[in-house]
Design a protein that fits this description.
The chain is α+β, with helices and mostly antiparallel strands and 274 residues long. Helices cover 26% and strands 22% of the residues.
């Protein structure tokens, strides 16, 4: 599933084309792609059809209008193609048509992706935690958030109600860089390690965005794969040498997910630290 950097990469790609253009129609090629509205409901938007902005909230691509927003979630295999030419694919689930013959084609092989229509961000905000790259996401806030939870640290970071946008790749990378074993209990991780984790989450996400995200299977934007795959330190590296200690990277199942970890240099915090 695309994580924060991949979704931000899509936003960065489509925003210059879409902002200022007027939406003419949303055509659902596959009926279930429209999650909470019908094609006729788009008339609500068409009273003020000009796109005001395109941005990201959590793993949603937000296309905002004067009085409404369209929220697109790519899920596992969703891709957006912006073009003024006809885009051919048997996996198109929806087409957003704009003026000047530009369209966004929503291509989704597994058909898990959805499009939502809301008045504002309240529904999405109510189900998602803070943005890890937001200016209000400080060391102190993160320390307070983590210390109030007694949970597996990896499961906690994957919980979208706790923090938005993180997924398996960037959680594994951030925990490795911070020397924290993914099986650690959140409120038992030392303060200096929590501060390190905060910094590494933000650093890793920014670096990934600068490299158009990570392509593991098929993520790409208009045919261009994410370059951060070349900079992964631990994710997908089972059996390879740890860049820190030269021990072997292992793949374990933690929080129900395949997890890449160096058991030598990532400390497991399961007892009170003194």
């Amino acid at each position: 599933m695309p994580e924060l950097p991949e979704v931000q990469t899509v936003v960065n790609h489509i925003r210059p084309t879409c902002v200022g253009k007027r939406l003419k129609r949303i055509q659902p090629v596959w009926g279930k792609v429209l999650h909470n509205f019908k094609e006729a409901d788009v008339n609500l938007i068409l009273d003020h059809p000009k796109v005001v902005d395109v941005y990201r909230r959590a793993k949603f691509i937000i296309i905002s209008f004067k009085n409404h927003i369209i929220a697109i979630h790519l899920r596992m295999t969703g891709k957006l193609h912006v073009t003024d030419e006809h885009f051919r694919s048997k996996h198109i689930t929806a087409v957003l048509e704009f003026e000047d013959d530009y369209s966004i084609y929503f291509e989704d092989i597994r058909k898990f992706g959805r499009i939502y229509l809301y008045d504002d961000l309240k529904v999405i905000d109510s189900k998602h935690g803070p943005e890890p790259l937001g200016k209000n996401f400080t060391h102190q806030l993160f320390k307070k958030m983590v210390s109030q939870k007694k949970r597996n640290i990896k499961a906690l970071l994957l919980d979208q109600t706790f923090i938005s946008g993180l997924g398996n790749i960037y959680v594994d990378e951030s925990l490795w860089k911070s020397g924290i074993h993914p099986s650690s209990i959140s409120n038992l991780v030392p303060e200096n390690k929590i501060f390190s984790l905060h910094s590494n989450i933000r650093l890793t996400l920014r670096e990934a965005i600068n490299n158009n995200g990570t392509t593991i299977i098929d993520f790409n934007v208009n045919g261009e794969s994410g370059r951060y795959t070349n900079y992964l330190c631990v994710y997908g590296k089972a059996g390879e040498t740890c860049l820190k200690c030269n021990d072997r990277i292992e793949k374990l199942k933690i929080a129900g997910r395949g997890t890449y970890v160096c058991t030598k240099c990532q400390m497991k915090y399961t007892k009170k630290y003194s």
